[in-house]
Amino acid sequence: MQDADLLRYSRHILLNEIGLEGQALIQGAQVLIIGAGGLGSPAALYLGSAGVGHITLVDDDRVDRTNLQRQIAHTEARVGLPKVLSIQTAIHDINPTVKVTALEARADAALLDRLVRANDVVLDCCDNFASRHAINAACVRHHTPLVSGAAIRFDAQVCVYDSRNAQSPCYACVFSPDTQFEETRCATMGVFAPLVGIVGSLQAAEALKLISKVGRPLTGRLLMIDGRAMEFTELAVGRNARCPVCGTAA
Questions:
Q1: Average pLDDT, the chain
Q2: For the chain, what is the total number of helices (H) and then of strands (E)?
Q3: In 10 A of CB 15, how many CB atoms?
Q4: Which domain holds residue 160?
């Protein structure tokens, strides 16, 4: 590790749980972030500032002024640019040593299959159930841990799904793909701006813990946040043997 790195990451290195070894793991890690909006913005900025070696961003949307209320990686000057390029710029402004691959694309099954297998951790920062299930299926197939987050109005949730752990559920165990969910979008329902920052930051924290092997991840624990009362509720979630994605019959 170079002297400049020792200085930049000194506050992580000072933590006994991380130290030089953990920081080296972070700098050698590859992380995939699907979604460059409200959740992806803080998640990407914290992972970049922490020194994750290679971050791949996937999103097919462009920066709009309505995004600026909560998507903190974007700026007025970058309205109209692809969100992935905007976040790439924001990360490099903080930490130019991090490699950032920006893919202006929709995360379809073929792209996910290629990207998930090449990364150590995946962050689901998207905003629709179809994409969430596609991301989950690819993570189960390649045994890649998935950090999932969601937020709408004043409500949010975070969970880690890790198919390397025989006891861990996958996203489909908790939210069955056969269930008909009504899609809720920020554009029609609204969202409390700091809430997406909380969730995206928690996703970054869980990813860094998984990479550096620190602490106890949110595996098998669904953390729900009520932003009105600022109450955090944790539910234990288990693996479903009949899950169509990770179950014994899958």
A1: 95
A2: 10, 8
A3: 12
A4: 3-236
